[in-house]
Amino acid sequence: MSKSNYGAESITVLEGLEAVRKRPGMYIGSVSTRGLNHLVYEILDNSVDEHLSGYCSEIHVILEADGSATVFDNGRGIPVGMHKKGISAERLVFTTLHAGGKFDNNAYKASGGLHGVGSSVVNALSKHLTVRVKSDGCIYEDKYERGNPVIDLIGGLLPVIGKTRETGTWINFLPDDEIFEKTRFKEDDIKARLSETAYLNPELTIYYEDRRKEEVEKVTFHEPEGVVGFIKDLNKTAEPVCDVIYYKGVMEGIEMEAAFQYINEFHENVMGFCNNINTLEGGTHITGFKASFTNIINNYARELGILKDKDQNFTGTDVRNGLTAVISIKHPDPRFEGQTKTKLDNQDAAKIVSKITNDELIRYFDRNVETLKNIIGCTEKAAKLRKTEEKAKTNMLSKQKYSFDSNGKLSNCESKDAKKCEIFIVEGDSAGGSAKMARNRLYQAILPIRGKILNVEKASIDKVLANAEIKAMINAFGCGFSEGYGNDFDITKLRYDKIVIMADADVDGAHISTLLLTLFFRFMPELIYEGHVYIAMPPLYKVIPSKGKEEYLYNDEALDKYRKTHTGAFTLQRYKGLGEMDAEQLWETTLDPDRRLMKRVEIDDAKRASEITEMLMGLEVPPRRTFIYENALEAELDIN
Ligand code: TSJ
Question: pTM to 2 decimals?
């Protein structure tokens, strides 16, 4: 269809989508894998909204062999009838920014949530997108290329391509490789998201298929136990201190439900959701939950005589020691703020979650005093540790003052301009030695660490702080550390813009990276939220052809490709570890900002690392090996 068929209205529409293509990052956050996966979530959320409205029980998500994605549901079908100014409503949905909510009476929308984008953004960023709607006996079809409609409407209405008794919406789209750096959906993230969605919507079933694999992978996500099942799953390898406790409530049009359980471990895991969106940066609902919890446990502890008059209250962190919790709220008008727009900002959410949590917990604990005592046991343990650790910390602080030079191992850079500086955390003294020689000492610092660092997931904080490698890192970064949100960590003091984990490209290297990510995620999460953490990608091979230029190859696929495309003889040199490269090679391949490959760690990676660590520690030896090995091979490269 030619552009002359549009009225003035639709021309501004196309200009709107052109803006999306010009600045995709503004609408989907990034054009890396994270942004790519976001396209699937954006579409998926529309089907989840249809479920929340009460009309859709099944959603299918298919990663197609051709690189496209298909999502379909058994809801009512996107309205196809005539909307204002003679355009099918469906056309408006796909060609207008933020058109989603206009004819939707569902009070709690997830779609359009994270970055406020609509399905039109997905359309604008797809090479081609096809929509099929089944409703009132017919199958309607519409097609777009890079956001532009390619089907002529008949009297403003969509063509009918078949008859059916069913209803639903079917979408297939291929992300545009002119926009995205990577066009391969990351299945682990997508599956994690689907699993989460299933737990938050116990009456929904999600069918997942990956048709890109030689043997098609199929997984069904259905979690009739809801958030209670979520907690059981999160805690499945832990030693529980109490049963899973569940409550819910509604106030002022805001719904909430929560499930929690204490386990015998020295950390907390409190997760929040608003309208099915994972609020990774926390927010008011979490604040409300925590405030009530702290208050109630302290009140009971005094009532039971566990805290005496002279004793100070337990801190919030004490009270949440060993706590795993999921708080899910449904808000008619959610506001998100923060670096990744995943921090809930609505003040009413704090008040309502706090009130309902307070009432429900008192009701529960009055009837279950034994459980309450076990929980307070966890709190007391934490308080005791905290006091020891406060002493240790003042000692440590007065001895070392987080001083730059107190740590002999750090080879710092000369520049003090944090925006330009980078620190490489290098495993092993020999690799550390080469890296010190190889670096640009003006702005690259090297911190060698030895062997396996402590797994912080299971360790108490005093153990963590006693660990020399960890102390060295905290000292070097300069921002302190925090347990949970807010406290002692100050990102403005960060001395390096980039913190680069440099480990061997093998199983042990992957393990060390995982442990480091877990450490950062637990004690310095803002480093990750604000995008300061990277993983260096040293090459696996060097090929030296008899004629032509030497090349470094960073994975087995690159080697396969080289073998297929290169004519003539060549010598293949395999690097087993960083220590095998001389300083010059290390500079060329891994340190030089103009030539190196690094992967920026994104929140999901870090969150998963922490889950992975938890899993690794709980598993038998054989599966542990294969797991790390697969992931080491699948690591993706981002050119920086
Ligand atoms: F993102 C999207 F638009 F492309 C999309 C929307 C993708 C997929 C896979 C599903 C959907 C979708 C939309 N599923 N179900 C709906 N429902 C509606 O759009 C709908 C239907 C009826 C009514 C009504 O008031 O009668 C209202 C709405 C919003």
Answer: 0.67
